[in-house]
Design goal:
6 strands, manganese, 111 residues, EC 2.7.11.1, alpha+beta, globular, TATA-Binding Protein
């Protein structure tokens, strides 16, 4: 997988204090984001995401640093879709941003 590199400006913009999305998005209630850092390799991160997806009966697609997971069951608000984007800070340090793209937020919180 080809990962996205983050510059110093990208890293600063990830800070909650610099989140300007409220200026551009009127309704953020449809999105749920989580972000974490890890020293695991990108292949280990992807493998773990695939393992978790298989436990939840998700279909997985990988492309350019993003793992897209689509639920196989129809939920209260449609199929749950989750994207996990992997950013490389250094070869040994990554940021993973997980975003609910569609489906029920309560169902997303359970996963």
């Amino acid at each position: 997988m080809k990962l996205t590199w983050l510059s110093a400006f990208d890293i600063i913009s990830l800070s909650p204090g610099f989140d300007l999305s409220s200026l551009f998005e009127k309704d953020k209630s449809h999105r749920s984001d989580a972000r974490f850092t890890t020293q695991k390799s990108a292949s280990t991160i992807v493998s773990r995401l695939e393992e978790v997806a298989s436990m939840g009966s998700f279909k997985v697609k990988k492309k350019d640093g993003t793992v897209k997971m689509q639920g196989s069951k129809e939920g209260r608000k449609g199929q749950l879709a989750i994207d996990a984007e992997i950013f490389e800070i250094t070869p040994a340090f990554h940021v993973v941003q997980v975003t609910k793209k569609s489906g029920d937020t309560a169902e997303y919180s359970l996963h």
